Amino acid sequence: MKKVALLVLIMAAVCVEAQQSAESNIISISAQKVLYFSDYAKSIVEPAINEWSKKDEFEKMADYQKRVNDVTRDIKVKQLTEQCQKDYINKYAPKVKLNPTIAQQYDSENEVFLISDAQFGQMLVPVPISEGRTFKSNWSTAKFTPKYTIDNDVLAIAELDIFIPALNKHYKYSNQNNLNYELARVDYNFKPIEIDAVNTNNNRGNQTIGEKKFTAGASLVDTQIPETSIRNENTFVVIIANEDYQMEQPVPFAKNDGRTFAKYCQRTLGIPAQQIHIRENATYNHIKYELSWLKNVCDKYEGAASVIFYYAGHGVPDEKDRSAYLLPVDGMGKDVASGYKLDDLYSKLGTMPAKSVEVFLDACFSGADRQGKMLASNEGGRSVVIAHKSGVPQGKMVVFSATQGDEVAHPDNEQGHGMFTYYLLKKLQETKGDATLGQLSEYVQKEVSKRSAVIGKPQNPKITSASEVDGEWMNWKVR
User: Fold this and answer.
1) Most exposed residue of 40, 54, 205, 365, measured as fewest CB within 10 angstroms of its CB?
2) Which tens digits make up the pLDDT trace of 327-350?
3) Are 325 and 336 in contact (CB under 8 A)?
């Protein structure tokens, strides 16, 4: 009971501290300053769990180990995070000023109106065709009642009830997802649990529960993220961040790479949250799904959409023809058939009717992981890395690849990122997104080559483009 009461007091105290976070961790909603949810929750849950994890002076060791273990901590984290989500919505939802607008044209075939809001994007509202004209002509009298959720680390609309007085009827937008609070991804960094007590069973010492394999989030590029008021409405992003492989070694910092890149896309490049899809630990079918989403969007935008595809994870080569593959989280390094061929990725993206396609690959395709160790080998083993064929970009595509030939894509342990991704983010931070792809490529190539030379592990990023945009992509603006 004492621990529960203490936890409540801690949460109350850290809620106040959460409101005092740095300006780099906030966004504007209707001219109000609002914390990103992950920053809000992390500042509350981490100290609460660290305090809860301590052994009480008057607590027996057996009782402590029953109360605090990896299972009970996961349960406690989930409970606290869910409460944080409710508190976050209750705190920031009243600050929002909805101002939905209605599209000029009614879709009579599907009997829906397209509704848009500057903060929350586009919503489809079913309206019977017999009521469509009255619904539209009385839009100025509509009353809106939203229900909120959290999506892509920010406040989002789960449902929007629209009441039209002239029809005395309610109409509803729904995101069609489970409307219960879904547990958001927060990159917690809990302290190890230190047990300092006499144990007569000679089972004494430090007990560490749930310690992370990789510490991330300490870099300034993670915390000092520039913000823009620009709305990049026609850019769509897919981020694949594969770290926890089922049958291969993990990729250090891949999830942190993806999460921070997503924040730069939203905060610095001005891309709406709903247009950024991030997949952590993606399977083969996850990758296929996200590419299908991009194709569908590009088809609907009829050449006006721009695409960004980012990948952090393992890559593998085919030993026979040296072609390169992205490795899904359930893939095997010894079986390229379980991977997604790079040529197929370029073909899929390159044939989309897009204004531009930018691909960023923080992976190597030599058969080694970020630490230079070989992935699972075929029968008989494989003792040398393989110089892969990089593939040919298509359409209006430019590709930033972390390595070339038989090089390894190294991590930067000090920054908690892949080395390639760190300098990519660093340039976006320094320029506040106001740079050309030419300037970005020059910086990343130069800085990664310098840094890798210092540590004695050569890595030279390679930039290639499709023939259709050769000579012009360097002048494309990052945002």
Assistant:
1) 205
2) 999 999 889 999 999 999 999 999
3) yes
**Cβ–Cβ contacts within 10 Å for residue 173, how many?**
23
Facing residues of 5 across strands? none
The residue behind tokens 């210092």 is 454
Q: Which residues are CB-contacts of 403 (< 8 A; sequence separation ≥ 6)?
A: 363, 364, 365, 366, 409, 420, 459, 460, 461, 462
Question: Distance between CA 160 and CA 174 in Å, rounded?
Answer: 7
Tell me the three state secondary structure of residue 449. helix
The token pair that represents 238 in the structure block? 């897919």
Average pLDDT over residues 127-152: 93
Q: Report the C-alpha gap between 321 and 319 in whole angstroms.
A: 6
**For residue range 80-96, what is the model confidence (pLDDT) as tens digits?**
988 988 999 998 888 88
pTM exceeds cut of 0.90: no
pLDDT band, residue 178 (cuts 50/70/90): very low
Q: Which domains does the chain have, with CATH numbers?
A: 2-93 (no CATH), 101-174 (no CATH), 220-475 (3.40.50.1460)
Alpha helices per DSSP H over 432-465: 437-454
Length of the chain as a residue count: 479
What gap in Å lies between CA 72 and CA 205, rounded to an integer? 21
Task: Determine the Cα–Cα distance for residues 395 and 353; give it in Å rounded to an integer.
Answer: 9
Name the band, by pLDDT with cuts 50, 70 and 90, for residue 322: confident
Q: What is the dihedral of CA 336, 339, 343, 346, to 10 degrees?
A: -170
d(CA 358, CA 399): 6
Structure-token pair, residue 198: 């006499």
Contact present, 477 and 436 (Cβ < 8 Å) = yes
Burial class (CB in 10 A: 0-12, 13-18, 19+), 2: exposed
Paired tokens of 201: 């069973």
Which residues, other chains included, contact 125 with Cβ-Cβ below 8 Å and sequence gap of 6+?
112, 113, 115, 160, 162, 171, 172, 173
